[in-house]
Design brief:
By secondary structure, the chain is α/β, with parallel strands linked by helices. It has ten helices and ten strands.
């Protein structure tokens, strides 16, 4: 459907947003009420353009009875940001500092939350193989959106971004040919099976679901920035409870969580530029 901009100065009313979020929660079980309102409204404006609506409230009765429309709304709100070895300096630190410390654990469980289309999950798998840790590691790849998880499971992407991914891989400290981790058919790259076998894909909602596994590393990059302060702290608490003592939490470099020391005293900030934390020993 062609996007129209004729209404671009239209103001979305808070009552419309509240009604739409209530519909998503009650009808489909998705709770987005803790999302930052400014970001949420921008995405809802895009939806109004896509559906050619004058008022956001026009979308609500359609969502009630059309699951495909509701899924489009959910996908738009939870749109992922994911690519291979994004922010290479982060992956270099994981490679050189974090993974050598994780090697001291007899078993390494990693929770990669907000997987998007899976590129970061497979970046992590590649890193574990190169560090010789894959045979005693398990990655739990989670997302709220089942469509994103299915695409991540397939592990296939268009070849047009290969040169960018190769460059990011090299800047992260990779020594090989990035293309060697894939099979190629026509214009598509598919991750090789040996880099998928220790990954479990799970639908999980950070807003309402609880801890499901004790882990040594949690990665959740550039998801919390879409959440309000209360929901951010709820999710960081969830991650903290998931971590074994001595385990690491890696957030997005632009995600500064308010009052971490007060709200989450078990977390020690190791690197502010990376938003890297470690769960300390002791009772709190």
């Amino acid at each position: 459907m062609t996007a129209l901009i004729k209404w671009k100065n239209h103001r979305i009313e808070d009552v419309e947003v509240n009604l739409l979020l209530h519909t998503l929660s009650e009808r489909y079980g998705y709770d987005f009420t803790g999302y930052a309102r400014a970001s949420l409204k921008r995405r809802l404006l895009d939806l109004m353009s896509y559906f050619d609506l004058t008022h956001l409230s026009q979308l609500i009765p359609i969502m009630l009875y059309d699951e495909a429309v509701a899924q489009t709304v959910i996908n738009s709100i939870s749109v992922p940001t994911s690519e291979f070895f994004r922010d290479p300096f982060v992956w270099q630190h994981l490679r050189n500092v974090v993974l050598p410390q994780l090697a001291s654990f007899p078993r390494i469980n990693i929770w990669q939350a907000g997987s998007g289309y899976g590129q970061e999950t497979y970046s992590l798998s590649i890193l574990l193989h190169e560090a010789g840790l894959a045979n005693r590691s398990q990655i739990f790849c989670t997302d709220i959106n089942p469509e994103f998880l299915e695409e991540a499971k397939r592990g296939s992407w268009h070849i047009r971004h290969l040169s960018t991914w190769q460059s990011s891989y090299e800047k992260s400290g990779g020594q090989g040919e990035f293309a060697d981790y894939f099979t190629q058919q026509k214009n598509m790259l598919t991750i090789r099976s040996e880099y998928k076998c220790h990954i479990e894909f799970i639908q999980h909602n950070l807003v309402v679901d609880d801890v499901f596994k004790e882990v040594q590393l949690v990665m959740c990059r550039n998801v919390l920035l879409y959440f309000g302060n209360e929901l951010q702290n709820r999710v960081v608490n969830l991650f903290t409870r998931s971590l074994e003592r001595g385990g690491f939490l890696l957030l997005g470099s632009g995600e500064n969580i308010l009052d971490v020391k007060i709200q989450h005293p078990q977390l020690e900030l190791l690197d502010n530029s990376l938003q890297l934390y470690r769960k300390m020993a002791g009772e709190f």
